[in-house]
Design a protein that fits this description.
The protein has 167 residues and is mainly α. It has eight helices and no strands. The chain has helices at residues 28-54, 61-78, 91-94, 106-114, 118-130, 133-141, 146-153, 157-164.
Length: 167
C-alpha cells in the first residue's frame, strides 16, 4: 500500500458509476495504474513539445534528427505495436482491447504532423543515429549539405572521423 500523490482527489473516470473516493491510500495495482496514466500523459506532453520544435524552420537537420530520435523513442513507448517488427499478429492485437484504429507508423505520423516526406524523416533519423557525435558537430558547424552527411552516416565511425578532419 502506498500514498497517492499529485493532488488526486478521486481515482476514477469522471463518468464511472463506481467512484472511488480519495482516501490518501491505494493498493499497489491502483497505484501502478495511476502511475502509468500519469507517465503516459507526461510522454504525450513531451511529444507535443517536440512536435512544436520540429515545426520551427530554423533548426539544422542534425538538430531535427536528434529531436526525431527522442520523439521516436517516446512514440514507440506509447505505441509499441507500431515498432518495426512489432506485434501485429497475436490475438491481443486482433481483440477489441486494441481496436481497429491502430496508430500510424512513426515516420508517417511525424511526416504528416510537420509537413515533410517520410524520406526526409528517415534520412534525418539515419544521420542523427549513425554519425559519431564529434562528426555530427563538425557537420553542423560547417553546415555540410544533407546529401554529404548521409554519405558520412553510411561510413564506419573511424572513417567518419578521418573525413571530418579534412572539413
Amino acid at each position: 500500500m502506498g500514498e497517492i500523490t499529485g493532488g488526486m482527489e478521486r481515482a476514477k473516470n469522471q463518468y464511472s458509476k463506481n467512484a472511488l473516493p480519495y482516501s490518501g491510500r491505494a493498493d499497489n495495482k491502483t497505484e501502478a495504474l495511476l502511475s502509468v496514466g500519469i507517465d503516459r500523459a507526461n510522454e504525450a506532453e513531451k511529444l507535443a513539445e517536440i512536435d512544436e520544435n520540429l515545426m520551427r524552420n530554423e533548426l539544422h537537420y542534425t538538430e531535427r534528427g536528434d529531436l526525431l530520435l527522442e520523439r521516436k523513442r517516446i512514440y514507440e513507448d506509447l505505441h509499441p505495436e507500431t515498432k518495426h517488427g512489432g506485434d501485429r499478429k497475436s490475438e491481443k492485437i486482433k481483440t477489441e482491447e486494441i481496436g481497429f484504429d491502430l496508430p500510424n507508423a512513426f515516420t508517417k505520423d511525424v511526416a504528416n504532423k510537420i509537413g515533410v516526406s517520410r524520406d526526409t524523416i528517415e534520412n534525418e533519423l539515419r544521420i542523427s543515429r549513425n554519425l559519431a557525435p564529434e562528426v555530427k558537430e563538425t557537420v553542423r558547424k560547417h553546415d555540410i549539405p544533407k546529401t554529404e552527411a548521409l554519405k558520412l552516416a553510411r561510413m564506419e565511425p573511424e572513417k567518419q572521423r578521418a573525413v571530418a578532419e579534412y572539413i
